[in-house]
Design goal:
By secondary structure, the chain is mainly beta. The chain has two helices and 32 strands. The chain has one domain: YVTN repeat-like/Quinoprotein amine dehydrogenase (Methylamine Dehydrogenase, Chain H), CATH 2.130.10.10. The strands form eight sheets. It has a four-stranded antiparallel β-sheet, with no helix packed on it. Strands 2-3-4-5 form a four-stranded antiparallel β-sheet, with no helix packed on it. Strands 6-7-8-9 form a four-stranded antiparallel β-sheet. Strand 18 and strand 19 form a beta hairpin. InterPro entries: PQQ_b-propeller_rpt, PQQ_rpt_dom, Quinoprotein_ADH-like_sf, WD40/YVTN_repeat-like_dom_sf. This is Outer membrane protein assembly factor BamB. It holds the Pfam family PQQ_2.
């Protein structure tokens, strides 16, 4: 029985050892608990030892970075810890707000914020160590903030920072908070998260980010291979299934494409991890034709790959050939990455409606589950600006109050028989 969910997408997992999840719920059915959190955040929850850990930011300038622990059984808020932000910025719907998902293990929870705060805490909330990466390596200039979640192995936390000002890949000792290694990168805009996997006997850190998919040795940060000419891989992270790596890309950012690159559709491709001349490498197996994704990462499951756009269009393709099997609209726009367990695939809609379909080459909807009452939705207490940072995007300001944009479903953690679902200022548990 799976009793933990340790990172963003559980390290890229399709469900791990989970055998069953709820199939139907509503505001009056199967909601075990609902907890309001201080602050506001976009990170997914992580779970260990009967505790749910999640992050948020608080204040008009996001001046407080918060870490919370809740009891998994009851939802009771057990503790909150605060760190001062090194990079205050107006709380806005157009800037990331506690977007990076933490990682957790048997000894602690490790958190990262878009202001550069990086910290390790024990399960009781005691700070083990803390750092400001902004103070150490320079300020971050992306007008939308950063959103890279942490990755981990047994003793190391991996931090990816891709920013127009500074960019680097960092390996940090979990026990001490000190660097194991640091690799400088070409400055760029990207919000993707790294993934730890195995290639033969070697452990790799896979990074898909604005033009490239790269494999790094987790021991020392050595770049082992790189695939270029990728367009639009700035938000979705890769999904790994055996020796296949499925890349996600969005056409919404085609303007960031490098000369001579693939189209965004072609960049939703499949790579195979191979050995070439005795060294780890990767090759492109197929390129996409039509299927794309936006915020959500692709999901490989039982020989199929699922992509979902922000508008709620699901594409299903053959994992071996890339042949499209269907494209269908689900019941909600979708920002969170999909999840597969047993015979079903779950799509967690931005507006709180989770569409469940049957896993397979034919689209078959099983359930459509609303999380909250649209007449009485959960509300956030945080002050927000609804004005875009870039005046050129003024047309995107569709509202003048947070209530007209919120609530938003951002992420989830899955455990045997239950889901913990994250909104900006609330956690829900479905059993």
């Amino acid at each position: 029985m799976q009793a933990s969910w340790t990172s963003f997408r559980n390290g890229g997992s399709v469900g791990g050892g989970i055998k069953r999840l709820p199939l139907r719920w509503s505001p009056t059915q199967s909601i075990a608990w609902k907890t309001e959190l201080p602050g506001y955040g976009q990170s997914s929850p992580v779970v260990w030892g009967g505790r749910v850990f999640v992050t948020s930011v608080q204040g008009p300038m996001r001046e407080r970075c918060l870490v919370h622990a809740c009891d998994l059984k009851s939802g009771k808020l057990l503790w909150s810890r605060a760190f001062a932000s090194s990079l205050p910025h107006e709380m806005s719907y157009y800037v990331s707000r506690a977007a990076p998902t933490p990682v957790v293990d048997s000894k602690g929870v490790y958190v990262f914020f878009e202001s550069g705060e990086l910290a390790g805490l024990d399960h009781g909330g005691k700070t083990l160590w803390s750092r400001s990466l902004v103070k150490e390596y320079g300020t971050l200039t992306n007008e939308f903030g950063i959103g890279q979640s942490l990755a981990q192995n047994t003793d190391t936390v991996f931090v990816l920072v891709d920013d127009p000002g500074v960019a680097y890949l960092l390996a940090v000792d979990k026990k001490t908070g000190k660097n194991r290694w640091k690799v400088s990168r070409e400055p760029r805009k990207s919000w993707t998260s790294p993934v730890v996997t195995k290639q033969g006997e070697k452990e790799l850190l896979l990074v898909s980010a604005n033009g490239f998919v790269e494999g790094f040795d987790t021991k020392d940060g050595t770049l082992l291979w790189s695939v270029d000419r990728i367009t639009g891989n700035i938000m979705p992270s890769v999904c790994v299934d055996g020796d296949s790596v499925f890349v996600g890309a969005t056409p919404a950012q085609a303007r960031l494409a490098r000369p001579g690159g693939r189209t965004a559709a072609e960049s939703n491709c499949c790579l195979r991890l191979i050995t070439k001349d005795g060294k780890p490498s990767a090759e492109v197996v197929w390129e996409g034709k039509k299927a794309t994704c936006d915020f959500a990462s692709p999901l490989a499951y039982r020989g199929l790959v699922y992509y979902v756009t922000a508008a709620g269009i699901v594409f299903c393709v053959d994992a071996k050939t890339g042949k499209e099997l269907y494209s269908e609209r689900i019941d909600s726009p979708c920002w969170a990455s999909p999840l597969a367990v047993g015979e079903h695939v779950y799509f967690f809609g931005k507006n709180g409606i989770t569409t469940i379909i049957k896993a397979g080459p034919v689209f078959e909807k099983v359930a459509s589950n609303p999380l909250w009452d649209t007449q009485n939705p959960p509300k956030t207490k945080e002050p927000f600006s609804t004005t875009p940072n870039n005046p050129a995007n003024a047309g995107a300001a569709r509202a003048t109050s947070p209530d007209s944009l919120d609530p938003i479903l951002y992420g989830y953690a899955a455990l045997e028989g239950q889901l913990v679902i994250r909104l900006g200022s609330h956690l829900f548990c479905v059993r």
